[in-house]
Every structure is written in structure tokens, then in C-alpha cells.
Amino acid sequence: MTNHQAAIFEESHAHHLYLEFETPVITGALPGAELLATPVSRVHETLAFSGKVLDGIDHRLVPPELKPFEAIVGRDELVAPATQGDVFVWIQSNQRDEVFARGLAWTQALDSVAQLKQEEHGFLFRDSRDLTGFIDGTSNPKDDERLEVALIDSGSHEGGSYVMTQRWLHDLAAFHAQAIEKQERVIGRTKKSSIELDEEHMPPDSHVSRTEIEREGSEVEIYRRSTPTGGLTDAGLFFLAFSAELRRFNWILESMLGKTEDNVRDQLLTFTKPVTGSFYFAPNMLALNHIFA
């Protein structure tokens, strides 16, 4: 699995830019080969695509599980909406000006075939915390396990990864109005040190309980790369995750929204909601070089 897009696993950057583009029908390679061939020092980027785009370039580029994101309607009228995009560009660096410049360059390169649909600026908040004040990604896989969780391990799509993006909008005033103990029961971890609550004190509707799940006898693992995003009036999270299997994303979302046999939904959804949702595929480097002309 040495042919993957290495930037997926770059974890040290403070500034992020997430760009989602819409395209009409694609019948050939995308413009941008020159840009792809001229990386910028200390700027890392990941490129991913919808099945429509990959199929329009070469049907062999489409991995077997890839499909558009479909809205999920859960308990209490909760909805994970679908806003499927076609091209996803994620840029990260410790230099915000270079992140912006690279994003502008990709927008200009794709201008003839794609329209920018969504632009989100992510940032490191304190010691990798969500804007709720809780550390984000505590249970993420580490070291080589990240590759095992995120990357397809064999076949023509080896080194590729399924991608899910969602923009979440937080009600921070309502969340922070809760006592710390209540916040910790909502999340399922202590706020200061991110220690998981023990079995006796872990609510079945905590965020941990609804996202750390098992299916078919195995733990459902994904690799999260989310960051805070937005301003004072639209603060939230850009949820970004990678997986060797697309179905893992749906399993976790269904558990959060209460579309499971226990009919329990994630109480964190009282304080935050998704407003976008897309699935993409981040191909290996060999395939990536054939996508752009």
C-alpha cells in the first residue's frame, strides 16, 4: 500500500481548506495535470472524486462500493442530508497563505469543467479539540493501523480510499449551557483528559456508544481527519473520514440517527446537525496521474 495519497495521513497541520466542486457530464480527463505535477513545499493535498467523474474518465477507475451519498432520515426527524459533489480537494499546511493560494490555483485549473459548490476553512483549535471543547479523534487508529483502516489492500484499487465529507453546524450556546458532567455524558468521555467513561457511567445514547460499534462480529473502524470550521455565527465541524469500505460510514451514521434495532439515537445530535453529505473515492497515485490531462 505504498501507492496511496500520502497527504491523507499528514496530521501536523494547523490550516485546512476543503473544496467541493460540481461538474456536468465528464467524458475525458480533467484539466490540472501541470498543477498536480508541481507540488508546493510544505503544502499537502488530497484529491477525491465521485463515481460519475471516474466513470466518465474510465469506468475501470470506479471502485465496487462507490455510490452517491443518500440522505438518512432518523429518529426525532433528524436527517443527514445528501449534497453529493463531484470533485473534492483537501489542502493542508501550517502556512495559511499557501493553503489559500493552492486552493485558488485548483479552482482556476478546474474552472472549465467544474463549479465550486462548497468552500470550508478548517483550523486547529487548541490541543486538537472540537469547538465543544472535547478532544476530537481520540479513538482514531494509530501508525500502520491507519493504513489498514483507511486503504483498500489489494486489487486494481489498492491504496485507494473511500471518503465521506459532512459539514456540521453546532449550537455551542446550548451545549456549553450544560453542566460539565452533562456534557461528558453526551460525549462519553471526560472533557479535560478525554478518558472514556467506564461501563457503569457510559450512557447508551452517548456519542461514544453510538459511534464505537460492531458489525458482523468486528469493530467498525474509520480514519477521521475532521477539523473545526466556520465563524462565530456558523461554528461547527468539517467531518472528513477515510475507509477501506464505504459501508462503514453508513453503519455509523445509522447508529447515530437511531436507525438500528435498539432505536437509540446519539444525544450529541441535540446540539449539532449535518448540513451536507458526500461520498468520494481517493484513488492511488497511479490512477490519479491518469485522471488529469
What does this structure look like?
It is a single chain. The chain has 293 residues and is of the alpha+beta class. It has one domain: 2-Layer Sandwich (Alpha-Beta Plaits), CATH 3.30.70.3420. Helices cover 23% and strands 24% of the residues. It has helices at 33-36, 51-57, 96-109, 143-150, 172-176, 180-187, 207-211, 247-256, 285-291; strands at residues 15-22, 43-49, 72-73, 79-80, 87-93, 115-123, 161-170, 214-215, 218-219, 223-224, 227-229, 236-243, 272-274, 278-282. The strands form four sheets. Strands 7, 10, 11, 12, 13 and 14 form a six-stranded antiparallel sheet that branches. It has a four-stranded antiparallel sheet with strand order 2-5-1-6. Strand 8 and strand 9 form a beta hairpin. The longest helix is centred in the middle third of the chain and has 14 residues, at 96-109. It is globular.
Please write the CATH class name: Alpha Beta
Extract low-pLDDT stretches: none
Mind describing the biggest β-sheet?
Answer: 6 strands, antiparallel
What is the general shape? globular
Radius of gyration computed on alpha carbons: 19 Å
Class from secondary-structure proportions: alpha+beta
Taken as a percent bin, the fraction of beta residues is 15-25%
Continuous helix count: 9
Give the N-terminus to C-terminus distance in angstroms: 25 Å
CATH architectural name: 2-Layer Sandwich
Tally of extended strands? 14
